[in-house]
Specification:
The structure is a single chain. With about 230 residues, the chain is mostly helical. The chain has a domain at about 5-140 and about 205-215. It contains 9 helices and no strands. It has helices at about 5-35, 40-50, 50-80, 85-95, 95-115, 120-145, 150-160, 165-185, 195-215.
Length: about 230
């Protein structure tokens, strides 16, 4: 596939899968399952909403597969802009996938432990497994932020994608990285959620742009649209 419009639409479709499955597995499911500061209630919700919890795990797996393919499609599109930056973008995105998958094993372990039905022992073990998942997800978030920095830079420089979305991507990357170090260095202090808004605007915006509009003709000739 060499047509920039087709590549951009493919990247947009993959990004849409990442966004939808990410919102479901990382936002919707935790909002129904997790009770902050009350592990027992959280474990009770896992058992009560077992199918939802399993669906969240499945969606997270789909997200990782799509996120493995997404930077490769973006590399084909953005390589002419700056090859080194495009390579760095791919490396930072791809390295997050195995970390995320290893972290997800802890969530599967928690589900398996709870299914044994030995309440006194299983609750503490399952709580530790969920905590390990959260720690792994925190490390994964670091790379979810870092990959947005070269990605946003490439969007800004491209000439065929909106610069403003590139700015939001860079700010979003900074927000994710800041959140990781905030939670490590200031545990128990809530991270300001507004710092993550640029990431949401940038990622959803670029997803929809790639999918619905595609790569515009560059005045510098970086990208040539086929008829």
């Amino acid at each position: 596939m060499t047509n920039p419009m087709k590549i951009s639409r493919l990247a947009g479709a993959l990004y849409l899968v990442v966004v939808v499955t990410g919102l479901f597995s990382l936002v919707h499911v935790p909002s129904r399952i997790t009770v902050t500061g009350d592990p027992s209630a959280t474990l009770h919700n896992i058992l009560t909403h077992n199918l939802l919890f399993r669906a969240g795990i499945a969606a997270f797996l789909v997200k990782q597969v799509a996120f493995l393919l997404l930077p490769l499609a973006l590399f084909r599109l953005l390589r002419p802009v700056h090859r080194d930056a495009a390579t760095l973008m791919v490396a930072l995105a791809v390295v997050s996938v195995p970390i995320a998958l290893v972290s997800l094993v802890n969530r599967l372990d928690a589900l398996d432990i709870l299914s044994r039905g030995v309440v006194d022992q299983s609750q503490s073990q399952a709580t530790l497994a969920l905590a390990a998942y959260g720690n792994g997800l925190l490390v994964t978030t670091l790379f979810w932020g870092l990959w947005l920095l070269p990605f946003g830079y490439l969007v800004i420089r491209s000439g065929f994608l909106p610069k403003v979305l590139g700015v939001f991507l860079v700010l979003g990357g900074i927000g994710y990285v800041s959140q990781v170090f905030w939670e490590i260095l200031a545990p128990g202090v809530d991270f300001p959620t507004y710092a993550l808004l640029p990431a949401a605007v940038g990622e959803i915006g670029i997803c929809l742009w790639l999918l619905l509009v595609g790569a515009r003709r560059s005045r510098r000739g970086i990208v040539q649209e086929s008829a």
